[in-house]
Design a protein that fits this description.
This protein has 189 residues and is mainly alpha-helical. It has one domain: Up-down Bundle (Rhomboid-like fold), CATH 1.20.1540. Helices cover 69% and strands 2% of the residues. The chain is built from nine helices and two strands, in the order αααααααααββ. The chain has a two-stranded antiparallel sheet with strand order 1-2. α7 packs antiparallel against α8. The chain is globular and about 45 Å long. The chain starts with a helix and ends with a strand.
Length: 189
């Protein structure tokens, strides 16, 4: 059971789904929590780094569904290897790193950035290293696609900088937590 073996992942999944439900209610009543609590680089508010990690576009189910699916599939597996506290550190640090890179590459953006994608990409980076070549190939393909869109355009409305920043920070946190053996997995200390 996920709640017992990976309580941080289970809590994050529940928080993201519950807050999305509340967002939908607010959105239906004419309020847009993303505009209030999302991260707007042109009007940078440090607290929005955290609040934006738990918001998703309430006008579509795809955004939250994709993040929850990735977290549900990879999060528990990574948490069981890293341990609860280290996984929480990985998740939060990756989310913060993703948000900061988004602000850095889009300083004048006035649209709010929302979503757990930076944190999720940190989890994907950890999964790629922990679970070896097959997972690495899958995640590397997605990463290269994100680099392409970030530098050559396309995919409007997607914070590719947050994905890339989260991935890089996730890898660096993993590097600090464990001695890495690139492409050969990791050995917990």
């Amino acid at each position: 059971m996920l709640a017992r073996s990976a309580p941080v992942t289970a809590t994050l999944l529940a928080a993201n789904v519950a807050l999305y439900g509340l967002e939908r209610v607010a959105y239906a009543e004419g309020h847009d929590p993303c505009r209030v609590y999302g991260l707007v680089p042109a009007h940078f508010e440090p607290s929005a780094i955290v609040t934006s990690m738990f918001l998703h576009d309430p006008s579509t189910l795809l955004h939250v569904a994709g993040n929850v699916a990735a977290l549900g599939f990879f999060g528990g597996r990574v948490e069981r290897v890293l341990g609860h506290a280290r996984f929480a550190l990985l998740y939060v640090a990756s989310g913060v790193g993703g948000a900061l890179l988004h602000v850095l590459v889009n300083p004048g953006a006035t649209e709010p950035m929302v979503g757990a994608s930076g944190a999720i990409w940190g989890v994907l980076a950890a999964a790629a290293v922990i679970y070896g070549r097959a997972t690495l190939a899958f995640v590397a393909t997605l990463f290269v696609e994100n680099l392409w869109y970030a530098f050559f355009g396309g995919g409007e409305g997607i914070a590719f900088g947050a994905h890339i920043g989260g991935f890089v920070v996730g890898f660096l946190v993993l590097q600090m937590v464990f001695e890495l053996r690139w492409l050969g997995g990791i050995r917990p200390s």
